């Protein structure tokens, strides 16, 4: 019996091997390395740093090529021109979401981030409308961020200039901003329930960026075995439970003529469409959408802020120039505001350069084509996954001389004025660009300037010994653990 099984496996492998090249050719996909049966090109890639592996392949196959993750073909777009053409010129055709099996286990294609088709279009359109009505990009939200920034200052003063890990404190500001938009709630910075929620959000991104999760995405049956994905599922379940509790509270106090927050707006829309069996506004979609907005709006900004402080510790001469500009434009007697940004080109350049340099999402979440499509003379069948190598635009040598060097001059012209760049795609581009981009810009500027207005950042080691290498570089580039002292000025 054992011999029969072995022979059957060998025969199956031979059949797959014989069919594979023909199948690859018939699809007329872009060129790429020859895949092996079953495993595809996995053995030719460094799973710990997919971004670097794809950069090497782009040298041989150009800006549009195909890689097989297992038996699934994935088209890679590398470089600004190819990315711009796909996401902006042909945005509709490249607007579906590719698969991410670990996350799909609980999102089930709902929400904003991991949905496609009508679910994505209607949910995103509705969410953007509500976020704007709740003040995104407006003065009212700016006022709230300013207030939260001052609360952060008070919390940092309580550290008494002693070494501290800034992770959770930096998450409190964007966490409270998102909480007010979604739940109309604000939490104290020592509220244990709030800190636990932030910890869950932080751990979800950290776990989702691990090598194990990449394997789980390639081999979905690994979900049934023990591993860090179990903790990820547990954290997501806890967040969903919290959201459901907030929804139930809102249902009991809902005034349809006076919506207070995102939850109220969604409940009102659900009631309007309760007789529409095709409606996308269901309770399941509600919970996942709220989870998407809260998590994305909290963790990406707080992670960027951690990197901001780390790089400023590494480069004290740059920190000093930012503080000099703060003294000249804002002074010490009032809070920074968004109008100040246009008068602070160096600070603006530093923030943009940090976002470019840290390469927070080297490869954005997979897209998929919505229909059979010919792109640059290559035929791409409907549903084919697309990986967008955003890092290739952020490190383009023609646009950013010495792209691997941290240099705010990348965003300054010869006269010292701030210089925009179309290659700055940290929030993606096209139809799936980050819905909270304007909010993130506001938070990063106001928080950085407020912190440097009140504190000197003191490292625990010599700046030249500070290591800024990310601890993971797959789904997201996460900064290493560090501590620092916030010394009041």
Automatic annotation (TrEMBL):
Question: In which domain of life is the source organism classified?
Answer: Eukaryota
- One Pfam family of this chain: p450
- An MF annotation (GO) of this entry: oxidoreductase activity, acting on paired donors, with incorporation or reduction of molecular oxygen, reduced flavin or flavoprotein as one donor, and incorporation of one atom of oxygen
Q: Identify its membrane topology class.
A: Peripheral membrane protein
> Which Gene Ontology cellular component annotation is one that this UniProt entry carries?
endoplasmic reticulum membrane
Q: Which UniProt keywords apply?
A: Endoplasmic reticulum, Heme, Iron, Membrane, Metal-binding, Microsome, Monooxygenase, Oxidoreductase, Signal
Q: Where is the signal peptide?
A: 1-25
Q: Which InterPro entries match?
A: Cyt_P450 (IPR001128), Cyt_P450_CS (IPR017972), Cyt_P450_E_grp-I (IPR002401), Cyt_P450_sf (IPR036396), Cytochrome_P450_fam2 (IPR050182)
- Swiss-Prot/TrEMBL cofactor(s): heme
The GO biological-process annotations, alphabetized, read as: organic acid metabolic process; terpenoid metabolic process; xenobiotic metabolic process
Which residues take part in binding heme?
434
The principal localisation class reads endoplasmic reticulum
Keyword field contains Heme: yes
Q: Where in the cell is it found?
A: Endoplasmic reticulum membrane; Microsome membrane
UniProt record similarity statement: Belongs to the cytochrome P450 family.
Q: Which PANTHER family match?
A: CYTOCHROME P450 2C70, CYTOCHROME P450 508A4-RELATED
Q: What is this protein called?
A: Cytochrome P450 2C3-like
């Amino acid at each position: 019996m054992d011999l029969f099984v072995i022979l059957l496996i060998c025969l199956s492998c031979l059949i797959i091997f014989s069919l594979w090249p023909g199948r690859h050719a018939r699809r007329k996909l872009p060129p790429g390395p020859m895949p092996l049966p079953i495993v595809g090109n996995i053995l030719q890639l460094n799973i710990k740093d997919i971004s670097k592996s794809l950069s090497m392949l782009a040298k041989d196959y150009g800006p549009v090529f195909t890689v097989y993750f297992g038996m699934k073909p994935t088209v890679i777009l590398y470089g600004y021109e190819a990315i711009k053409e796909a996401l902006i010129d042909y945005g509709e055709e490249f607007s579906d979401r590719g698969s991410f099996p670990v996350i799909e286990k609980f999102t089930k294609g709902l929400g904003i981030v991991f949905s496609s088709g009508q679910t994505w279009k209607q949910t995103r359109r509705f969410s953007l409308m509500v976020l704007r009505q709740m003040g995104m990009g407006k003065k009212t939200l700016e006022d709230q961020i300013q207030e939260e920034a001052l609360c952060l200052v008070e919390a940092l003063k309580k550290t008494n200039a002693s070494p501290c890990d800034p992770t959770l404190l930096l998450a409190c500001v964007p966490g409270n901003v998102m909480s007010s938009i979604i739940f109309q709630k604000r939490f104290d910075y020592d509220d244990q329930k709030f800190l636990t929620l932030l910890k869950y959000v932080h751990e979800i991104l950290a776990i989702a960026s691990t090598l194990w999760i990449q394997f789980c995405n390639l081999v979905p049956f690994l979900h049934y075995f023990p591993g860090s994905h179990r903790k990820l599922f547990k954290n997501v379940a806890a967040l969903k439970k919290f959201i459901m509790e907030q929804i139930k509270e809102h249902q009991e106090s809902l005034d349809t003529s006076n919506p207070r927050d995102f939850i109220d707006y969604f409940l009102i829309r659900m009631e309007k469409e309760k007789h529409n069996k095709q409606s996308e506004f269901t309770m399941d979609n509600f919970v996942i959408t709220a989870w998407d907005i809260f998590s994305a709006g909290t963790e990406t900004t707080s992670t960027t802020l951690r990197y901001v402080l780390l790089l400023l510790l590494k480069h004290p001469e740059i920190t000093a120039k930012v503080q000099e500009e703060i003294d000249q434009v804002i002074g010490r007697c009032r809070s920074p505001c968004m109008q100040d940004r246009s008068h602070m080109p160096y600070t603006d350049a530093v923030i943009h350069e940090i976002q470019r340099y840290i390469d927070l999402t080297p490869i954005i979440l997979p897209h998929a084509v919505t229909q059979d499509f010919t792109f640059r003379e290559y035929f791409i069948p409907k549903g084919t996954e697309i990986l967008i190598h955003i890092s290739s635009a952020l490190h383009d040598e023609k646009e950013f001389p010495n792209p691997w060097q941290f240099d705010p001059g990348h965003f300054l012209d010869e006269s010292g004025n701030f210089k925009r760049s179309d290659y700055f795609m940290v929030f993606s581009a096209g139809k799936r660009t980050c819905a909270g981009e304007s909010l993130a810009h506001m938070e990063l500027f106001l928080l950085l300037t407020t912190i440097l207005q009140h504190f000197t950042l003191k490292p625990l080691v010599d700046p030249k010994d500070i290591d800024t290498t990310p601890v993971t570089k797959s789904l997201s580039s996460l900064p290493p653990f560090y501590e620092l002292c916030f010394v009041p000025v």
